[in-house]
Amino acid sequence: MLLDKLKPETAIKLKKYGYFIYLLPLLLPALSYYWAHATGMHTFFALFPLMVVYIIVPIVDLILGKDPVNPEEDQVPGMNQESFYRWLTLSCLPLYFICIFSSAYLLLHWPELSVLGQVFYVISLGVVGGIIAINVGHELIHKNTKLEQISGGLLLSLVSYAGFKVEHVYGHHVHVSTPEDASSSRFNQSLYQFLPNAYVHNFLNAWKLQSKRMQKKGKTLLSKDNELIWYYLHTVVVSLLLGAFFQVLGGEFWMGVGVFFLQSFIAFTLLEIINYIEHYGLHRRKMSNGKYERVTPEHSWNSNFFLTNMFLFQLQRHSDHHAYAARRYQVLRHYDESPQLPFGYATMFVIALFPPLWKAIMNPRVEAYYQDEGQSLVSQ
């Protein structure tokens, strides 16, 4: 492939500045508006962000091929100290806030757009939220600085999913690839069986886990020190601000609130679909003492396509992330021995929407991965 011929030092530099591609999804709603008016194809371009993410990116992934950069251990300390990588992710908080309100402004000044086109446009905004608010929020909540932690929580609250900050770290990462984890999909489970349980369990479990955390501090769940209260309050405030923004510009207040929560629903649905993909059919073995084996790179599906690695701040290197959760995105490594997805996340996302196709592609891979265990995978 094209990137295999690059010298290692050139590849690392290319990758460093390649992360600026995160600006593209933030610009897609505005580009949709511009090209719709330039061509007169309004409903078509309302879906432009989806076409970029789920058609163009997978095609370019196949052209560019796999990511050749795996930082050596002696490079990791230096890369970890570079503030460049940290500020890229932190910048997503103000930029996504601006993206929401600027997209609302464009929506209100797009009279040619049909009601269906308006829905498509808000769905497209939700896809951007999945890439920026959810994905980057996920990166930040794993870091140990207060600025990053709070920024991650605020990003997640911009898509009404602040509970993820608690449930993901104290629930999912503890119970990943076990029956106790609603974000780990089972062998032969369809996406549509997985999603309802993931929505409900992860919301309720966030509050349950937070209650236990507050009790350990000698405080109640309704204490002012409960961060979830403040993050969900932030969600409500921003939704009302967007409603007021619509009203000031001549639109309907509740339409603005509806836009906020629809883009939120799309964004956190994207998250749960990615969760479905990342752990499908994988399980941690139960040891003789009744405990599960420790989490290793073999308990997450890995993907290593270059463009999507750039686009998602290396979320695809999920095996390394679960084995070493605090690692910063720029030093996550690819493991050949981890179970490998056949395509990048965007392609796998589309495949997951069609359970027969998903099972035809993924079930043989799960069975092959566990072929030496001699046990039924359906029960896992």
Describe this structure in words.
This protein has 380 residues and is an all-alpha fold. The protein has one domain (2-283, 291-365). The protein contains 17 helices and no strands. Helix 4 crosses helix 8 (115-141) and helix 4 (48-64) packs across helix 16 (345-352). The longest helix is centred in the middle third of the chain and has 27 residues, at 115-141. The protein is globular and about 65 Å long.
In a few lines, what is going on in this structure?
The chain is 64% helix and 0% strand.
Relative strand content: under 5%
Helix content: 55-70%
Count the DSSP helices: 17
SS content category: mainly alpha
Distance separating the two termini: 37 Å
**How would a crystallographer describe the biggest sheet?**
none
Care to count the β-strands?
0
Write down the overall geometry.
globular
**Number of self-contained structural domains:** 1
The pLDDT mean sits at: 91
Alpha carbon gyration radius:
21 Å
Q: Which residues sit in consecutive blocks of at least 5 with pLDDT less than 50?
A: none
In N-to-C order, the SSE pattern is HHHHHHHHHHHHHHHHH
Task: Summarize the topology.
Blueprint: H1 8-18, H2 23-39, H3 42-46, H4 48-64, H5 76-81, H6 83-90, H7 92-108, H8 115-141, H9 146-157, H10 164-175, H11 191-216, H12 227-248, H13 253-279, H14 306-311, H15 318-323, H16 345-352, H17 355-369
Helix pairs in contact: 2-7, 2-8, 4-8, 4-16, 7-8, 8-9, 8-13, 9-12, 10-11, 11-13, 12-13, 13-16
